[in-house]
Amino acid sequence: MRRYLFAGLLLALFVLAWQGVATLHSVDNLTLASPVETFHALRDDWSLLMDNAGVTLVEVLLGLAISVAAGAGFAIAMHVWRPLREAAYPLLVASQAIPIVVLAPIFVLAFDYGMGPKLAIAALICFFPIPVNVLDGLRSVEPELLKLMRSLGASWLQSLVKVGLPSALPFFFSGLRIAATVSVIGAVFGEWAGADKGLGRLVLLGNNQLQTPRVYAGIVILTVMAIALFVLAGLAERIVCPWNRKEASPA
Questions:
Q1: H or E element in which residue 185 lies
Q2: d(CA 61, CA 225)
Q3: How many CB atoms lie within 10 A of CB 195?
Q4: Distance CA 202, CA 212 (A)
């Protein structure tokens, strides 16, 4: 409870500081909308914001699902076949140096306007944490456990299923929490590259039309969406990996 109180206090201080800065005479209203103006935009444009938020949420979830499936499979393949790991891992790391704003128009040209480029961009942005964390988890298995499985006559597949994957689950959820947060950024970039619906497009149009309160209202909803996905990933970890839950120390 104390942690939530401190979080609420910090949020209140942030909102107060935001309101204070927004009311300064030297700050232009077209540059920074106050929390009160943002709240009014949320209230007045609620239907419009929610319609576009639904589109963005679908893109986020589908892109995240693609990255999870592809990333986990790629990590298992690198773990099983060492030459693939030695060849692909440096390229995987180097791929993060490529600006997504450069790739976004290329995806639009490749997949045409529609859901395809947005899913590709969202999946690409949240792909990296999944294979890196899953691979670290698979390689963190204690050698004694693997020796025990071999002494019991288990195949490499049985060792992977019964020892490797359970050990990698906490690492997987660590990557999933990161991927779930940045997946929202991927969907917004995809909508900026080309879309007719979505919160990213609505924020971009609001910025071009000098509707600053609506822009901040969209940003608030995107932030809440990312936080909610992060929390859901943490709850899923507590359900799937109960052994990884840290025991509370006695008072």
A1: helix 165-193
A2: 11
A3: 25
A4: 11
Which residue has 């497009």 as its token pair?
A: 201
User: Does the pLDDT at position 109 exceed 80?
Assistant: no
Amino acid at 71: G
Distance CA 9, CA 99 (A): 36
The pTM score is: 0.85
DSSP assignment string, 152-166: TT--HHHHIIIIIHH
For 126, the token pair is 């949240």
Q: Bin 194: left if φ > 0, else alpha if -120 < ψ < 50, else beta.
A: left
Check if the beta carbon of residue 169 is closer than 8 Å to that of residue 158. Answer: no
**Angle at the Cα of 9 from the Cα atoms of 7 and 12, rounded to 5 degrees:** 110
Torsion of CA 147, 137, 71, 63, to 10 degrees: 140
Residues 114-120 have a mean pLDDT of: 81
